[in-house]
Amino acid sequence: MPSTFLHPFSNPSRDSFISIARGEGALLWTTEGRELVDALGSLWYCNVGHGRREIADAVYAQMLVLETYSCFEPFTNGPADALAERIAGLTPMPDARVFFTCSGSEAVDTAMKLARGAHVQAGNPQRTLIVSRGRGYHGTAWGGTSAQGIALNREGWGPLLAEVIQMPGDDIEAMASLMAERGHEIAAVIAEPIQGAGGVWPPVEGYLEGLRRLCDQHGAYLIFDEVISGFGRTGNWFAADTFGVTPDMTTFAKGVTSGYLPLGGVIIGSKVRDGLEANPEFFMRHGFTYSGHASVCAAGLVNIDIIEREGLVARATHVGDRLSAGFQALSDDGSIAGCRGLGAIWAVQTRADQLAKDVHDQMYADSGVVVRAIGTDTLVFCPPLVITDDQIDRIIDAVAKATVG
Question: Are strands 35-38 and 97-101 parallel, antiparallel or unpaired?
């Protein structure tokens, strides 16, 4: 019989789950005591690794003073103000402001709303169209589900948000045609700089630059969804720096606290600020009960401290290089069909005679390595940036062992 807990992204009829009891660095242990290598950073987020007492201590200390208090006007708190300043200083967007949410899904919905709202305030209420890309994953709230470029995630929920359309994932000519036809209606284009949950797809050369150019030409905002790629994952604080393309808004979550507490948000650049701040009488009726939660923001501040102090942004490049070398060797000898990735985000494509789910299950059963299978032919990897070289090699060996045939 299924448990009382209805699990996310699961079969509601499933009646057994693997219970994780504790973690340290890139390792996990089940309630039965089995050691596992976390090759996915839980769900693309545990950048500083598991078991960081420093973060727990900071949250505890904040809760002893003030767990939190509403940040709705006219209130604020020190950790929220400090974290907003810290994040704004890491982004390539000049004069940025930061809006806090509780998750990446809320961040995406917020960015979509702010895009429309800023155009309304700027005198362009006809700009309501949101454009996303095929294979894009933008969370599972209403706006993000509507913007999904993964068809299965949109199915079975009834009518979704109007005025949201998907374009082919890497076809800049198709985007240009849409802009030429409906550019005056477009509020924003939302894109992951490197598509994650859709199977780890780096952009084709020139694509992101093309999006920036088209948005500038037609007056639309460019939103980068960096929920996965932010906070060091690509070898820079944000993938916008990695690709040298500056968006008008950036959504973030996951790596901002490494998952120690739920936090997300939107970094808002000058173009969107200009719209929102144009009318001094405008009152922005958007927010969440826990926007700017003091204890959560305290976790974010220490998490960023750790990333800086331990050089984990640079470490992401090393992790990615070692994963890439191992996967390429397996591709060269025919064990896998190929690999792709950027920084410390990677995917392995399985051979035509092997299902990704079967390889995934074999890696767990034989080697105690936790990955995620996407579709029929893709395994994705996004380990904690503190993972050791020996643990990376254990991941490579697990793929090799599970694909022997």
Answer: unpaired
Q: Which of 124, 393, 59, 77 is nearest to 258 (CA)?
A: 59
- pTM reported for the whole predicted model: 0.97
- In angstroms, rounded to a whole number, what is the distance separating the alpha carbons of residues 259 and 54? 14
Residue 237 has pLDDT above 80, yes or no: yes
> H or E element: which one contains 403?
none
- Tell whether the torsion through CA atoms of 188, 194, 195 and 201 is positive or negative: positive
Q: Average pLDDT of 261-271?
A: 98
Mean pLDDT of the chain: 97
Q: What are phi and psi of 181, to 5 degrees?
A: -85, -40
Burial code of 298-314, b = ≥16 C-beta within 10 A, e = fewer?
A: bbbbbbbebbeeeebbe
What are 380's strand-pairing partners?
Answer: 347, 372
- Nearest to residue 370, comparing CAs of 64, 40, 140, 102? 40
Dihedral sign, Cα of residue 149, residue 14, residue 369, residue 54: positive
